[in-house]
Amino acid sequence: MALTYSGKLGFAKQLGSIIQAKAVELKAAKMDVDGRSKGISARVDIAIKEDGKQETLKAELRAQTDKAVEAANQAYSYASDTADLIVGSLGKTHELSKRIRKLREQMSNVGNRGKKKQA
Fold this sequence. Notes:
This protein is mainly α. It has one domain. Helices cover about 80% and strands about 0% of the residues. It is built from four helices and no strands. It has helices spanning about 5-20, 25-30, 35-90, 95-110. Helix 1 runs antiparallel to helix 3 (about 35-90) and helix 3 (about 35-90) packs antiparallel against helix 4. It is rod-shaped and about 95 Å long. The relative contact order is 0.05.
């Protein structure tokens, strides 16, 4: 069974607390309590710091995704307005107007886009 991030960090923190609480007993068993305690503490601090960086990057990624989606929405809206302008200028029966209508139909009909390949 794979341990989760919080499980691993929780284990390290708890073991650090146990080492501190049982320092006398562990020192009597010739264990480097201070070294081990500092080592665990330093690694926990690094993990927390790196997790903070990850959370910041996740937030930035979500914000950037929102910007990209909004940019695509604006591009589509502008192109759609342009298509309407073309059809309005040339008339619905013009060949280019028919081509634009067909393009829109293809976009709205998922079946015309082809099957998505399974990963």
